Amino acid sequence: MTLAPLRLNKNEDHRLRAGHVWVFSNEVDNRVTPLTQFEPGQPVLIEDASGHALGTGYVNPGTLISVRLVSRDPKYVLDQSLITHRLNIALSLREKLFDKPYYRLAFGDSDALPGLIVDRYGDIVVVQITTAGMERLKNEIVAALEKVIKPRAILWRNDSPSRELEGLNRYVEPALGEVPDMALVEENGAKFEAPLTTGQKTGWFYDQRLNRKRLQHYVRGAKVLDVFSYLGAFGVQAAIAGAESVICVDSSQKSPEWIQRNAELNNVADKVSVQRDDAFEVLRRLRAERQRFDVVILDPPAFIKRKKDIKEGTLAYQRLNQMAMQVLAKDGILVSCSCSYHLHRDSLRDVLLKGSRHLDRFMEIVEEGHQGPDHPVHPAIPETGYLKAFFCRLLPS
Ligand code: SAH
């Protein structure tokens, strides 16, 4: 196949050569190759200003990120065979890491599959497409997945808001086979059921796996509060690891039912209870009742989605963490997470330090966690490293 060339402006090849994989719209030479001549998702040959090929990619003329590099070898375009190859490479890492088939199989640019996220629940697979270039390849993705892991069912969970930026509609529908409402997940020796079509994102947050494992060290005999609990992943694992009691907090309508079911699946229903309410409200109430917990976990949704929300979002993290510290026992452990890329690790550390000073408590950071290894970081794309988890101990001053 001959690819349409896409010419970059002078010196705009530097970032690609240095390892990045995106081209922004202002970097394209619109005189030689006007962006408007391309269709959304069209494959292109990316050239520097003097016409040397830099590799292949796909384009979207309507977005700020105009081109995503697919291969530095001009021979390869994104087709079924390249997707199969890259899924196999992604799979080989996951098979090294995990002895059971429950993980994120593909994490977009980090696995050289720009715009494609694949989460695996045994022989059921949930796929999220975020770019027009990948949307054009839906049949190829299904065929490649059938080749690589032979799933029984595949679900398109194509309802993320970011699709609108790419001019894509939002939908959730089966791509192959019969997709059940709930799928089994096994993690750190525990069993869960995750709602695939109606749950958050793709159903389960695999990125927190190692932080949930770390938690085991802190919870024996403890009173635990799991705030923003969703399916009870942290809370139920704490109960299994010997917590005396666990209160899970989440505002979503279904959470009580889901958490209860997951507690039962692991024979810890007698230890786990659920409060369905706004997290800030619950913390305020617990503080007023002078309740204290040995371990508090905060795993909120991203309060900062765009750069312009940094100030307001950081204040929300500040308020939340301070309230959590106020219900911590004398030498309690706070597990404070943030999945907002725009709240950098240093800023979350600062939030925690400020909170501890405000309450006049001595704080030590015992461990720092990040996203699990099935969410690899692309070294040139800082946005691919987004999850922070601080394990802090708060003592009297
Ligand atoms: N801790 C979970 C993931 C949390 S996702 C895990 O380990 O899998 C964030 C959760 O926060 C969602 O379930 C959502 O329903 C809940 N949520 C969002 N805003 C909330 C609020 N203001 N109060 C309580 N829960 C909230």
- CATH class of the largest domain reads Alpha Beta
Q: Indicate the overall shape.
A: globular
Q: What's the helix-strand series?
A: EHEEEEHEEEHHEEEEHEHEHEHEHEHEE
CATH T-level topology of the largest domain:
Rossmann fold
Number of helices: 10
Radius of gyration: 23 Å
Main β-sheet description: 7 strands, mixed
Q: Low-confidence stretches at least 5 residues in length (pLDDT < 50)?
A: none
Which molecules are bound in this entry?
Answer: S-adenosyl-L-homocysteine
Mean pLDDT: 98
Give your account of this protein's structure.
There is one protein chain. Helix content is 26%, strand content 30%. It has ten helices and 19 strands. It folds into three domains: 4-71, PUA domain (Archaeosine Trna-guanine Transglycosylase, Chain: A, domain 4, Roll), CATH 2.30.130; 80-180, Transcription Regulator spoIIAA; 183-396, Rossmann fold (3-Layer(aba) Sandwich). The longest helix is centred in the first third of the chain and has 18 residues, at 80-97. The strands form four sheets. Strands 15-14-13-16-17-19-18 form a seven-stranded mixed beta sheet, with helices on both faces. Strands 1-3-4-5-2 form a five-stranded mixed beta sheet. A five-stranded mixed beta sheet has the order 6-7-8-9-10. With 397 residues, the protein is α/β, with parallel strands linked by helices. S-adenosyl-L-homocysteine binds next to helix 6 and strand 14.
Jot down its keywords.
397 residues; alpha/beta; Transcription Regulator spoIIAA; seven-stranded mixed beta sheet; five-stranded mixed beta sheet; binds S-adenosyl-L-homocysteine
